[in-house]
Amino acid sequence: MNGSPLKVKNSGSPKKEAKGSAPSTPKSAKKLGDKKEGKRSGKSILKASKKDDKTGGKTPKMKQMTLLHLAKGTPAGSPKKRARSGSLGTPKLGKPLHPMALHLLRYYKENKDKEDKKNPLSSLISKAAKALSTEDRDRLPEELRELVKKRWELLEQKRRWAAMSDAEKEVEMKKRRAELKEKLREKAKERREKEQLVRREQSRRYEDQEIEGGKTLPTFKLVDMPEGIPNTLFGSVAMVVEFLHCYAGLLMPNDQYPITAVALMEALAGDRSGFLYLNRVLVVLLQTLLQDELAEGYGELDMSLSEIPLTMHSASELARLCLRPCDAHEESGQGSEKSGGVGDFDDVVSSEFLEKLETVEVFELSPEEKVELLVALCHRILMTYSVEDHVESMQQRSAELWKERLAVLKEANDRKKAEKKMRKEMESKSEKKKDGGAKKDMKKEVKVEPEPEDMISSVKSRRLMTQQAKKEKEELDRQNKERMEKEAEEERMRKQRAAAERAFQDGITKARLVMRRTPLGTDRNHNRYWLFSDVVPGLYIEKGWVHESIDYNFTPLPEEEKTAEAE
User: Where in the numbering of this chain does the DDT domain appear (predicted)?
Assistant: First the structure.
């Protein structure tokens, strides 16, 4: 009975109990599982494994893989374990960037330096500012973040402006104008302070060894002088040439050929070859001297010197007669009270030199004597009334030019203010017209009814279109004509302003030239630096102008003395 099939068949009930208590009958469960494995598919195996996982408190034992498992697929437990271990071990990734931010970042890197991509880039920044949130904007790179943030602020400002009422807009505009005025006032103040500091720094005296970043002066060399003229005479030659240039309006107003230092030095070095150029200089100086009121006392043989014809051949003798002392003019019987004003310059030329001029022509003198003669004539001319009147007229002309300049600037400022005021009035009127026109258009739109499209209406519409095109063409022609007239007027005004500016600068320069010319400065060795006009080109250094009787010494500062004693 024990081995009968009936008992084996009825032993299924304890099999169900074994399902509930798996640890009590492991052998029967194992046999039953082995029999069912060959009959069932992979799905049943997966269900059985899930049940075992749920019921069993312990981990299930590893099963040996058979050829059937390989043919049907991988076991179900392994991917489950792999997925669970992967989900537990890997850390969570950060929140990805917004697609618009990624697109903007890529486009910005590729086209930020391209001129033709500025407008598309700007529109893309505007789209990103609208689409991105505050958190997304903060995650952008710093350079791009600033651009998007500024654009977002601008869009927000426009949105707030659109939502404002007319009264709020007026208050906001007043506030903005006040802020703008304050900013402009601060900028103007900063600019004035900077200009004042620059002027102060430029006017301050510098020690040449303390200057940093400046260019070194070129290596100076002696002035190239013609053979026979010493280098010490260059200062006197430059003085004569500069005198002729500064007082050209008085001495030779209609002469188009200025007297240069190089040509004058060559004329002084040559004997007969320099006769024409040297006598031309003498004629220029003597004609001014003889036409002055002081020359009324200059005479010889009961004849005024101004009545004697002045030519290149008579210039030598007339120069000797004009350089005589005042008592000699009085002895000639033509003396006057006015001639006493030049008595201070009687010792400019020695009596021996005047006696030599009685028997020798000017071109036959030595270069030193020729320069001495020219310098003496320049000093005599400086004491004339003509030079005094010329200097006064130049200064007066300079003052008038300054008054005209200030008047022009004031007129331009008043015109700008009037244009600004008119522009504001036109803007206010245009705004009122726009508001009234919008209301009228709305009323007209309400009243207008659609007309039937027939032949008459089409003809009327074509006529209206033709008239409108004609009016537009006439308006365009009128605008072009006004624009061309305005451009021509602006060009004429520009030329007029340029001419006035040239006249102003010319008058100021002439008024400055007739005054005393001063050197640029001195160095630690007391050498003077000179920069003359175009007739004496170059930068010159004058050495040895300090008299030997003057003794220069250096007194150290108290701090330097203390440090020297401590050492």
Answer: 231-295
